[in-house]
Amino acid sequence: MVCIRRLSGFIATRFTESYFEITLPDELKTSSTQAPTWCAFVASQIVLGAQVWLGTSTVATLLAVGSSGSKRAFDKHHIFPKNYLNSIGIDKKVNCNQVANFVFIDYQSNIDISDRAPSEYLLEYRNRLGEEAFAESCEMNAIPSAIENMTYEDFLKARRVLMAQMIKAAYLKLAGKAEL
Question: What is the pLDDT of residue 73?
Fold first, then answer.
């Protein structure tokens, strides 16, 4: 009982509104996909039943052991591709590989997108999926709706906030709470 009270006390003092609004977005400023914050984001997608970006399979299905056969059915994709970022002068690996620039996507979409800028490939996907499905896909992946009109830095800031909100939503769902 003492351990449960201590743990509950720790959770109550750690997971506050300011944690989800300020601390967590700041902790998402990392390029490590081994970071607890990235793992929490992926776990939140699984808890919330999110589909891969621009696709129909769920993140949980694609991450399940043995689900992809001989060739991986999905990739961890740069939303702003590395070669595109390099072409506009953003070439430090730590900047290109921030976790806020990663998303799970099906293999064929990754090939189709290649090194194109979001402003080049997103219209194609909006048309293919329809506006409602496109918006839902962005929401399930914590991607700002006006991404094609954003600078890379503005995109990263906005996405980190959305990722933190998604982690909070999954936490609340698991905790059986409506709000903090």
Answer: 62
